[in-house]
């Protein structure tokens, strides 16, 4: 059996386990303060290293604007509480945020923030949107941990 099938079976087992014991908690932390691109400290906050922030539409736009000034990669995880694959990849997304402190990680609940999901043409969950310099540079649909990690490493 090749590694792809093993990974798929593992994810299916995790999904069954998640469905029987309940969803993983949502990871939210207060964002740390980031220096402004214009030298004004604490104007905009953005999460860094190990922090995954559940973001509103205003939070997303502020983080993109802030990160765009210094070409920092922003990864947005479009998720939903009812989405099994979203819940399965949540701890991996959290771990990636700890491994890549130079990347801004956001999470948008599509049910609570449908306008942001529509703005980024999200039609399936999970969808990861990669933004650099204020522009969408790539997107990944589906819970594929290996590809997600590759894309973060390639784009940052």
Strand order of the largest sheet: 3-5-4-6-7
- Provide the CATH superfamily: Glutaredoxin
User: Biggest sheet, in brief?
Assistant: 5 strands, mixed
User: What is the third-level CATH name, the topology?
Assistant: Glutaredoxin
N to C succession of SSEs: HEEEHEHEHEEH
Determine the fraction of residues in helical runs and give it as a percent range: 40-55%
**Number of strand elements:** 7
Distance between the termini: 33 Å
In percent, how much strand structure appears in the residues? Answer: 15-25%
Query: What is the 3D shape?
Result: globular
Poorly predicted runs of 5 or more residues: 9-46
Could you tell me the mean pLDDT? Answer: 77
Give the number of domains: 1
Radius of gyration: 16 Å
Structural class: alpha/beta
CATH class: Alpha Beta
Signal peptide: 1-19
Protein name: Thioredoxin H-type
Organism: Seminavis robusta
Domain Thioredoxin: 18-156
């Amino acid at each position: 059996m090749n590694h792809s099938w093993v990974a798929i079976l593992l994810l299916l087992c995790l999904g069954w386990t998640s469905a029987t014991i309940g969803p993983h908690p949502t990871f939210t932390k207060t964002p740390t303060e980031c220096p402004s691109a214009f030298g004004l400290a604490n104007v905009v906050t953005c999460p860094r290293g190990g922090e995954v922030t559940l973001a509103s539409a205003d939070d997303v736009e502020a983080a993109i604007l802030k990160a765009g000034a210094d070409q920092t990669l922003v990864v947005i995880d479009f998720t939903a509480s009812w989405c099994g694959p979203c819940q399965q990849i949540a701890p991996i997304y959290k771990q990636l945020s700890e491994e890549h402190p130079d990347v801004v990680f956001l999470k948008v609940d599509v049910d609570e923030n449908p306008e942001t999901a529509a703005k980024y043409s999200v039609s399936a969950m999970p969808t990861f949107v990669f933004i650099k310099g204020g522009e969408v540079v790539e997107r990944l649909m589906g819970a594929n941990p290996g590809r997600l990690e590759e894309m973060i490493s390639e784009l940052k």
